[in-house]
Amino acid sequence: MLTYILRRIIQTLVVIILLSYVIFTIMALMPGDPVELMISSNPKITPEDVIRLREFYGLDQPAWKRYGNWVSTLAQGDLGYSRTYRVPVTDLLGPRLWNTFVLSMAAMVFSLVVAIPLGIMSALKPGGKLDSFLNFFSFAGISIPSFWLGIMLIIIFAVKLGWFPAGGTQTIGLEGASIWARIFDSTYFLVLPVLSLSIQGIGRFVRFTRSAMMEALRNDFIRTAKAKGLPRSAVLWKHAFRNALIPLITVVALSISSVFSGAILTETVFSYQGVGKLVFDSIIANDFNVAMVSFVISISMVLIMNLVADILYGFADPRISYS
Amino acid sequence: MQNMALALFVTLGLGLHAGAAPSNKELKIGISQEFENMNPLIMTMSATTYMYRMVGRTLVVLDADAKWVPNLAKEIPSLEKGTAKIVEVGGKKKLIANWEILENAKWGDGKPVVCEDFAFTRTVAASPNVSVGEKETFTQVEKIEWDEKTPKKCVFTYEKPKWDFYQLANFFPLPKHIEGPVWEKYGKQKEGYEKNSNYVKSPTNKGLYNGPYLVTSVRLGDHVAFEPNPNFYGEKPKIQKIIVKLISNTGTMEANLRSGTIDMISTLGFALDQALAFDKKVKSEGLPYVTHFVPSITYEHIDLLLDNPILKDLTVRKALMHSINREDLVKALFEGKQSAAQHFVSPKDPWYTTDPKFVTTYRYSKREAQKLFDEAGWKVGADGYRYKDGKKLSLTFMTTAGNKTRELVQTYLQEQWKQVGVEILIKNEPAKVFFGETTRKRKFGSMAMYAWVSSPENNPRSTLHSKSIPSEKNGWSGQNNPGWVNAGVDKAIDALDTEFDAKKRMAYAWEMQKAYTQEVPVIPLYYRSDISVVPTSLKNYRMPGHQFHETTEIEKWTF
Asked: Fewer CB near the terminus (10 Å): N or C of chain A?
């Protein structure tokens, strides 16, 4: 097992290095750079300024050399400096990653808590009234565009009822308040974005749980367990659900891998200070340091969560062994 | 997405949740553009400048009436008053100006604003280790001197005797007593100063600011909060707390306004179509807001690539002008809230003229256009399009993809040019590609539509001088994208900077407008309007329509 994990970690590192180089090169091929942004906002910038700034930022060097510089800075523990926002990447990205993590995890946990019982109930009586009802709402949840749902939630709960704020991350000026006051305040701002993100997640997880449970319930060992006279709950949770877990683990693990990638539409609609829009803007503005750090985090999360899922398979199903 | 939001408001007919009415206690302003760290030396984003005007002041400023007025200075030096003079040093002409800083001008921590602050700022900006964008703003001041006994009386020596010296070297000072130690410690490292500046490490330090407000909270990507500066030299601010909130999705800007999350939408908020729709709702629903549309100096136009064999012909360019009805365009698409453009100078500029002695106007006339196309040898073929030597009169028309207003204008003009036999092929690109590659390297084939932002009495060197034609040789710098070469215009541009006689400068500007409208290197379309939405109860709010935002007078705002 240990050898397997070590081998996978080494593979992961190699993939990260290769992918980061590919991404860096692709970004370098994109037209425009931070100096272009300056020119477009200030026509008084002279040709001399343009040449000086390109040299200053190293934009006159080939991509491989710039990549080398970036890696060596990163190796020294310095994530670099944002050319767009003119602050260290750590200062910029840290709070936003945390906000995105809180939003995505809250939405996922809420989705799973609601969806798994509903999916199981749906699988127990396929074709029944409850199943039809849940199927309808699952498909509706999956199909609703998140920006539309976000705007609807704002109109109803912020504009009409005034129950929740239309956007933001926390009340401005609350920085000095107690930890509980800040947690309560952040939760208040999270309600609508979490709801908006969860509706889709619930629909998706209900469908996955239903299908995995139905598959598991069709197995011979379920019939045997029932014939042995095992209680219904034992058949359901110990035998059926445990076997339904493998496909669920894959889906949940892959979903967790995106918790730091950001939900760009939801974050934008709710003016939520997350990482999604920041990454998008940094790519558009060729803000290499911000974009590259975000990419590396996203790639690492996908690879790590895949590894975690593989390890969890072994726990869920003793037949799977890595020795 | 934004249209869907607007449609939902209308179709659902939802009532309005009444937020607390804005008062002098607090004002929340919505912006849709990102902002950066607020170091005035290196900031480049409009939203940052918008906010910095609340906390920082310069020696002079262009007010809402487009007049230069003193801010931190007691008065503007001039040759007439004897407070400025041209001298000759080592055979070179230079300009020396005496600036006196207001006696009660202080930083937020109570320390006086002195000449040393300006000299320090110039030193930092001139350093090769600091990534200042427009270096010339600082380096054109060769030195700043003062007597220790009179630290507020500064003598600026300017490298060249330019008439607009007081506008050009108009930078925000840095507080030496706070930023000096940072500079001493990190100034020798590349980017060392800007990474460790107090504007990054401690942006709420009161001593960093000298304007009517102080920064109390900054969260990049979210908001900046301000409170009055008790040490401000001028009129005391009336509003006790101001929050500038970033709402990057303009589609939800209205929802945020209606729900009370923000109280007003700044000039960096609504797009024109949203503002027009909202203005109708304000009137029909009796909402307590005013939608302001103020003509600005932003000039929307179409660059004609003069290397193109078709567009090289002046007769064709004139025919293209006669083919389009720009007056009708602004009425139909903008409900008259933006005005048709004559040339590159806006009506807000003292240099603007429509005098027929200088400005050639091209009235809408299909007949005149057809006559000119015929004269140029472009005859109508069986398919209704024009041909010359078997080649179709076909032009590529490019702009930024996804910009709804520009795409509407494009379709409108495409139809009008089709009526006179010109085929227009629309080929739009994302702004990043369009500005980063296509216009910069003059790869737009025929026509490129976009806007220029300038300022009153601005020397158009970067856009009209023949030396500003981007090429590989000059590293694709300069913004004369059509590739226009006119010796008279070059001469006027070169002479303009050092001409101290206002009448002569005006004459140069008119000569340039004359050549511009006669030779049509560019098709002028319209001057954009600045837009904002403010509560009806907000008083003393004036939108200037130029690069100095309305926040220049924020201390006067009151409810």
From this structure: C
